[in-house]
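User: tokens in, sequence out, please.
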């Protein structure tokens, strides 16, 4: 059976890749960078670690790399070119070495009926005891299963060869004689799980003593390398427990789990993977709050490390292109990353002449800009370069005209012009130029990376459409390379489709869409002011109190006022679903910081805004509330 795929970019979730070998071929070892930092700071192991992100940031893929079936392939093929880099990355964090697998990864999805326990007609205390009981049984079963995978034994047939050495000194086991063999432990845990299922399916009242309930998640504490042995020896050096998709638990289950883990502070290693949508609304919009737990927010990590994220996406794109059946060995190399100037030569020439006429009209009223205008007229370069320079000068002149002038105006020199043409001015001029004469703006691999908003699945959603177009071009005998205009059109089409799908994906869809529409319109209005005051453009806001200049991280007055509940819910939803990105910016008085909400980059594309960060405006809660109703 072939390991190749027609369009590998269409595979998003890791669970949709059947084979572990297929998963590892597509997995970028650079994704482990976030784990490496925690390992170096001593927070990765023997700790409770929450892994947070919006959908599609790569949580499940990250977790799958620690499964024993994946690690066994790496150990057996550690020198293979496809796996060598990943092997080295996992070795750095003490997961594997040349001789053995050190970590037994035990991952459990939280999508299997936990929430149904809340519907039982029993006390809240009993619900919690059954929740812990079900978790204990499933943790034990998953650990036994993965232990068998690690030592190449059949599960559950050969579990009797494993020994469970816990001596029950804490009296956790009420109905099991321990120590025991793995088969006995398996039967005990299976019975608990079956009894709970029976209670869920039954319409009869449940008595408090009918099912064994647990007050502790003792499986985490008692399943240690010392307590699980094969032929008298430990099978690993460390056990890693992972609760995946913990956002599927009920709010009370999440609360009880978090409370237990924070109070227990055991020496076990457990990672809790959950989407931001599960967090409390104030937690989401108040990312400045000090967490009382260790956390990796994947998107926040990549925003702080954009070069690393760029490298990851290049790595992912080349890995995926290499396994396509359509013999397109590269992805990035088939994306034109420069404007096709010849195609727009006449349009650019018309624009330049029109802009020069406009600038010359200004010289009829003042000679202040004569040297600048003369410089624009005589500028040597292509039609594109001349048009861009004229656009830059036009912005700077309009900025100057808008300032309060002194009584005497002295002509400005060419040297002063060159000093004022910063990268932000050039970016704004390019945006204005592209808008005015409809030049492609979103093209090249770097634009694709920026469009991804630190989310791997978002990158794949754009890239799969690009790659499909490459395949189509190849089949029809055309040039595989996607032109600037092709890329610009495709990326806008994807953004438009995402916008149409929004109402069926997010909570409070009408309010969310109203809010984003208002923010997009506001940003566009601010961005395209003729003097580009916030170059290269505006695509975000920070919240300032209605009175004075109190920061929301100083006094959360507005968040405690019920009249803003709708606004809080909308902001929290937008952050949880990666529609808004929060970044901390220092501005104003010494030590003063703002939490800026930036539009996700696909929304920037939707509203024809720049993909840069830095352009934002202050908005009060009252002003933002009005955006909900437009």
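Assistant: Sequence out:
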């Amino acid at each position: 059976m072939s390991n190749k795929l027609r369009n590998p970019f269409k595979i998003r979730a890791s669970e949709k890749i059947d084979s572990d070998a297929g998963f590892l071929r597509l997995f970028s070892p650079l994704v482990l960078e976030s784990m490496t930092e925690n390992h170096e700071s001593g927070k990765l192991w023997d700790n409770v670690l929450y892994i947070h992100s919006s959908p599609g940031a790569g949580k499940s893929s990250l977790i799958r790399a620690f499964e024993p079936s994946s690690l066994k392939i790496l150990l057996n093929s550690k020198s293979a070119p496809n796996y060598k880099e990943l092997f080295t990355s996992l070795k750095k964090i003490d997961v594997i070495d040349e001789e053995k697998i050190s970590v037994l990864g035990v991952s459990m999805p939280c999508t299997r009926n936990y929430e149904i326990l809340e519907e039982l007609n029993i006390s809240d205390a009993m619900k919690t005891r059954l929740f812990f009981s079900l978790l204990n049984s499933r943790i034990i079963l998953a650990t036994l299963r993965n232990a068998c995978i690690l030592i190449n034994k059949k599960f559950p047939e050969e579990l009797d060869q494993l020994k469970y050495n816990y001596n029950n000194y804490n009296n956790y086991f009420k109905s099991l004689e321990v120590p025991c063999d793995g088969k006995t432990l398996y039967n005990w845990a299976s019975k608990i799980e079956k009894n709970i299922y029976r209670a869920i399916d039954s319409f009869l009242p449940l008595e408090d003593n009918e099912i064994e309930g647990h007050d502790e998640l003792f499986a985490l504490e008692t399943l240690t390398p010392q307590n699980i042995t094969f032929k008298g020896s430990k099978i690993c050096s460390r056990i890693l427990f992972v609760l995946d998709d913990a956002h599927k638990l009920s709010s009370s289950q999440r609360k009880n789990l978090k409370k237990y883990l924070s109070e227990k502070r055991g020496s076990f290693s457990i990672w809790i993977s959950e989407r931001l949508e599960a967090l409390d609304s104030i937690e989401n919009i108040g990312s400045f709050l000090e967490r009382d737990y260790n956390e990796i927010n994947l998107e926040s990590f990549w925003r702080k490390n954009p070069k690393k994220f760029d490298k990851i996406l290049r790595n992912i794109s080349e890995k995926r292109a290499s396994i396509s059946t359509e013999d397109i060995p590269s992805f990035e190399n088939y994306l034109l990353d420069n404007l096709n100037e010849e195609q727009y030569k006449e349009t650019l020439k018309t624009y330049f002449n029109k802009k020069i006429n406009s600038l010359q009209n200004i010289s009829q009223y003042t000679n202040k800009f004569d040297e600048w205008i003369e410089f624009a007229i005589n500028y040597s370069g292509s039609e594109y370069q001349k048009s861009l320079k004229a656009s830059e000068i036009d912005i700077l002149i309009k900025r100057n005209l808008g300032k309060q002038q002194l009584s005497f105006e002295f002509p400005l020199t060419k040297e002063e012009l060159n000093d004022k043409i910063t990268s932000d001015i050039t970016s704004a001029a390019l945006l204005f130029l592209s808008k005015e004469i409809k030049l492609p703006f979103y093209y090249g691999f770097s634009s694709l990376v920026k469009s991804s908003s630190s989310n791997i699945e978002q990158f794949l959603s754009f890239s799969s459409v690009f790659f499909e177009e490459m395949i189509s071009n190849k089949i029809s005998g055309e040039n595989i390379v996607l032109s600037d205009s092709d890329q610009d059109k495709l990326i806008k089409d994807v953004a438009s489709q995402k916008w149409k799908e929004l109402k069926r994906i997010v909570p409070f869809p009408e309010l969310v869409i109203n809010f984003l529409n208002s923010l997009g319109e506001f940003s566009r209005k601010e961005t395209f002011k003729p003097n580009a005051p916030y170059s290269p453009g505006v695509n975000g806001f920070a919240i300032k109190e209605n009175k004075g200049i109190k920061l929301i991280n100083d006094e959360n007055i507005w968040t405690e006022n019920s009249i803003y509940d709708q606004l809080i819910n909308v902001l929290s939803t937008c952050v949880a679903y990666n529609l808004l990105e929060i970044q901390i910016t220092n501005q104003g008085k010494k030590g003063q910081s703002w939490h800026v909400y930036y539009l996700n980059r696909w929304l920037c594309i939707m509203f024809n805004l720049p993909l840069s960060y830095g352009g934002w405006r202050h908005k009060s809660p009252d002003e933002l509330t009005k955006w909900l109703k437009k």
